[in-house]
Input
Amino acid sequence: MDIRESITYLAKEGELIARARRWLGQSRPVEISSAFFILIFLSLTLLYMNVIPSSQLLLARYIGLLLLIVLARRTAEQIEKRGWILFRDFLPILLIFEVYDGLGYLLHLINPSDADPVLMRIDRLLFKMDASLWLEHYTSPFLNDLMHLAYFSFYFLPILLGIVLWAKERRGAFNRLVLGATGAFYLCFIGYILVPAAGPRYALAQIYQAPLGGTPITDFVRGFVASAESLQWDCFPSGHTAVALVVLWYAFREERAVFYLLLPIATLLLISTVYCRYHYVIDLVAGAAVAAISVLLADWFEFLSFEHQNRGKK
Output
């Protein structure tokens, strides 16, 4: 490579770096966060490309999601119509479903062993029992329905608070909620990859004496969860715990009336994760830690973004 080619190469590199900096400066923290985590999964796919079935399709999915983030931001800024603004605001939530759907290809790559025996030993060491087996003594058709409805509420908690904040045009609060909740999801996804575990409903299936099914409500919820949460090894940490606690935190900070509405529902949800045999207790402890980390990172990231915008105005 001669001097002229070197100068041309460096100029192109400098242009790419300048474009990346402009994108970072113009993007919301939640868009940068989503792109960062998607790049992590894309990198894992590249690293294990030879052993992942349909790896090229998975790569195309992640690249498409990254392009969608860029497209949504640019289109919403240029057109400035309510529909595009709505799409940009809720896109990070929609990305979660797509990323989760592709996680099955990445499980058992870094850690090929199931972690259920280890998680069970930790529960027995800390709590001297298997909590879901202990709760089996209190099962009843009424409690089965109540706990499964509480577990089912997980799919609506962040959406409910998000709609309230968005409808009140509290965009800053809305963006903080989405940043914290999506961060919790992505951290849980990484946990599933590092610590693949199926949960007590599979690991202890031969020991349970009282089946949880039998009523229309319980059977519906269990069927819905089986189809919606298609991954078998998505137990540690508890995403239900992490996201529910993040939602409670932002509801307490931003919309106190919604907090008092959600508090009893979220409390039952946490209990239901063990009662319904989806999680070990240690999963909930880890989920609470993920929630705390997600909130702290979201606040820190928002502070950095605010500082960067202030420097740009000076």
Notes: The mean pLDDT is 87. The two ends are 41 Å apart (CA to CA).
